Amino acid sequence: MKVSNVSCQASVSRMHMVFGGTFKKVYEFLSTFITSGMRFLLNQQICPVLYHAGMVLLNSLLDTVPVRSSVDELVGIDYSLLKDPVVSTSNLDMEFRGAFFPLAEGNWSLLNQAVEPQLQEEERMVYVAFSEFFFDSAMESYFRAGALQLSLVGDKVPHDLDMLLRATYFGSIVLLSPAVIDSPLKLELQAMVPPRCTIKPSGTTISVTASVTIALVPPNQPEVQLSSMIMDARFNAKMTLRGKALRTHLDLRKFRIYSNQSALESLALIPLQTPLKAMLQVGVMPMLNQRTWRGVQIPLPEGINFVREVVKNHAGFLTIGADLHFAKGLREVINKNRPANARDPQASSAPPSSTAAVAAPPPP
């Protein structure tokens, strides 16, 4: 993110000076020459100073904004501007892309079919809107990166669940060879399609459809599949903003397993509903929340954080309002990041001042 051009048209069109002291009459006699000289000097200074502030100082601050960066070892995020900022008397509106992408597919992008967020609140200094596209692109990216799968083998499978699964598939297990019967049990969950986010005024939900595979894994032999089923899960998602990080906490809301082979097999899976749900809540949810609670960084310059956050859900998007806290002084951040050879506002790269009139207010 960079300011690439600054246009300036400014000059002092009128100046009034009041003199006092012993030589008051002399200064008043020479006031025309003095004010003309000072106006000339000021006119030469205005645009170079503004140019330096925009092209050097402001860009030094914007250089600290993470526009395109990695979230973790699998996924990155793109906050590039979609169009020029819109400036009004009371607001500065900026439209960011806000899209995740797999690091292995840097040019991949998800088609944005979400509703366009609308911001109307004004109680806080800053409002950020996140559409369903923001969260869908994150889950699609992790899906494409192969992260939405979990495999539990042997001791990783909870003991009670291991016993229940062996009892459920006892009829299939006893028909196997003795070398396979006592083999470690494997439970594998894998998302079949990218999860989807739904944002409503009542809350935010994440819907996941995954395959559940149960198998025996004998040493040095191919695994023996006992069953394969489909899992539908729905999670409540609570969004919070801490500092610069947007964080998510997930709670399992609904859970259902069924067979894609026959209705009769689906009935046989009913006893597994409760223990598998408990396994998700105890074994899987903490791992998911550990990852989502790390959060993703919101593009803010260095030294600025969000405080007093307020989250509000709408149809298709959510908004987060916050005030800004300057953990560091702007001068400190600018001096730290600006080039060493760009200290002089009178640099030769500054454009000349122009002659458009900007009237200075008269003195009281």
TrEMBL record:
The keyword Disulfide bond applies. Residues 337-364 are annotated as: Disordered. Gene3D superfamilies: Bactericidal permeability-increasing protein, domain 1, Bactericidal permeability-increasing protein, domain 2. One of its GO terms (biological process) is high-density lipoprotein particle remodeling. Residues 347-364 have a biased composition (Low complexity). One of its GO terms (cellular component) is extracellular space. Keywords: Disulfide bond. SMART domains: BPI2. Residues 120-322 form the Lipid-binding serum glycoprotein C-terminal domain. GO terms for molecular function: ceramide transfer activity; lipid binding; phosphatidic acid transfer activity; phosphatidylethanolamine transfer activity. PANTHER family: BACTERICIDAL PERMEABILITY-INCREASING BPI PROTEIN-RELATED, PHOSPHOLIPID TRANSFER PROTEIN. Belongs to the BPI/LBP/Plunc superfamily. BPI/LBP family. This is Lipid-binding serum glycoprotein C-terminal domain-containing protein. It comes from Marmota monax. The lineage of its organism: Eukaryota, Metazoa, Chordata, Craniata, Vertebrata.
